[in-house]
Amino acid sequence: MKNLFKYREAWLLLAIAVVVGLISTRFPAFARPDNLAQVFNDTSILMILALGQMVVILTRGIDLSMAANLCFTGMVVAMLNAAYPGIPIPLLIVIALAVGLVLGAINGLLVWRLDIPSIVVTLGTLTIYRGATFVLSGGAWVNADQMSPAFIGFQRAVVAGIPVLSWVAIGVIALFFVLMTRTALGRSIYAAGVNPTAAVYAGINVGRTQFVAFCISGMISGLCGYLWISRYVIASVEVANGYELNIIAACVIGGVSIAGGIGSVGGAVLGALFLGIISNALPVINISPFWQMAISGSAIILAVVLNARGERRQGRIILKKAEAR
Amino acid sequence: MSDTPTPRRIPDRLDKPLKSAVFSWEALLVVVAVAIFIANSLASPYFLDPWSLSDLTFNFTEKAIVALAMALLIIAGEIDLSVAAIIALASTLMGMAVQVGVGTPGLVLIGIAVGLACGAFNGLLVTRLGLPSIVVTIGTMTLYRGIAFIILGDQAYKGYPSSFAFFGQGYVWWVVSFEVTLFLVAAAIYWALLHRTSFGRRIFAIGNNPVAAQFSGVRVGRTKFILFCLTGLMSGVAAILITSRLGSTRPSIAQGYELEIITMVVLGGVNILGGAGSIPGVVIAAFIMGLVTFGLGLLNVPGIVMSIFVGLLLIVVIALPIVWRRLRREKLA
Questions:
Q1: Do residues A276 and A99 lie in contact, with contact meaning Cβ atoms separated by under 8 Å?
Q2: Number of domains making up chain A
Q3: Is B333 domain-assigned?
Q4: Does the model's ipTM exceed the 0.85 cut?
Q5: Phi/psi at A158 (nearest 5 deg)?
Q6: Is the pTM of this model over 0.95?
Q7: What is the CATH number of the domain that holds A254?
Q8: pLDDT digits (tens, 9 = 90+) for B1-39
């Protein structure tokens, strides 16, 4: 039991349980399985995105362009669907993955080949991708009535009691779990983040690993582009504006260290779930939705403070002592 | 962020031959700025007019004022993503004060005090608790803007006193606005602070190697704390200007400014990893961004398309010297 609480995931799970417990004392319906399944479904997209972001952060990078990539890819598939309603949904998803991959690869190439810090690269591509969405659409929206029923209905179909969207999230989580813990790529992603120099001596191409990480986050953004548009049934330039910071917030709450090398699939998922539960709970307990932002902000700060206590390294402690004197 | 840290050096003022001045980052920026200026005046007949050139300054001075302090912070190896949220919170609290009848001097005081307090809170979290500033300020940006949303919801504050309008709309002399005057004065102060004082040298030392700076007797934590306070203060000043210019406050005010401000700083030649940069570079970069967006605006290019140019400008200007250096190295080898 004591060992269990060394893990951030256990603490997060406890925090989530406490929040759910507190709410259900006043509104027992909130903790009912069907409502919790609904919350999970609502948070699916954020969870998937957080996993993509986590991979980049693990390699000491950051991807600020995820929301813009999502917006662009979403517009591409929405316009394709509006123009050619006959394109089957699986093909559209493949297209979304491919478009997202290309945008992610652009980030990755700039970081890998030109050694530009990822925060600068993705700051630039963030504005470029969103601008490109405007150029592509001419500023027009794609509305629900222009989308085919299959396009909108795909993620809402219920399979074995839960919607396809939730199944997609579960599938992606499982995939990432295997990727990060059971494959050479996953381990080299951790290695490249923990100690890049040591990783090079271990035969890992750190730059290439970062490139692959950006490709992964790009594909994830592309997938979520389709999921987002078909969920909220509107494609515009404003889609997911500013959402990149929510994704990073989910990672931070989930214990992913911004310095790289530390973080887990379970943590990122629970971090996203925590934010999802808060945003779903506020209307239930009759707090104005305008409170949500301040509450997530406080949660992020609290999470960072807690993370730092777990991560402090030996060298820093010596320095801290010197500082204290 | 990248695996091979770019070489950092403390710029040495004693050794500066003419050649290095000609090939400096600032010189490159000046060339870019002049090129954009000429392109603009050829593209639109309305560009070369004192009043439109004066209008041009309004769309970047507020951001540039924050960029000055942000440059110092980034040189010291930290970052503040919460600046736009500080602007929103300061503006909201000023709006609240107007409702209870606070006059112009009181409003200015509130704007500055809120900015300073928010910056100090960031600084405390980063320096006292030793937290990474990028995540701390993602947290506080959500918190500060969240508080603005709690106070205002979907409402807006209006009814600012008419004397308050001077800061964002007034002119000091002919076409020279108060905003641009304030920006130039602030730029001169920050230039002196960074390039002519021991405090400025300490900022470079911290950015190049905080551990070495610590053991050389530089109070790293305190210096960083002061820089966070300065960034908050400048955000408060920007809040006064923007609120005065718009004459109303919504909680979504200045949304997305943080990324534009950081773009300005990086475009100005400040190393995002810390340790190098200059105030003249940032000032020229601010003018470049103003020129690009205003010139494209005269040509009826929508704002969102301009952002493509700003994003491309950022990446190309950063990438060019790297590619150039690499090509030259290959030629030598």
A1: no
A2: 1
A3: no
A4: no
A5: -95, 120
A6: no
A7: 1.10.3470
A8: 445 555 666 655 555 556 666 677 888 888 888 988 898
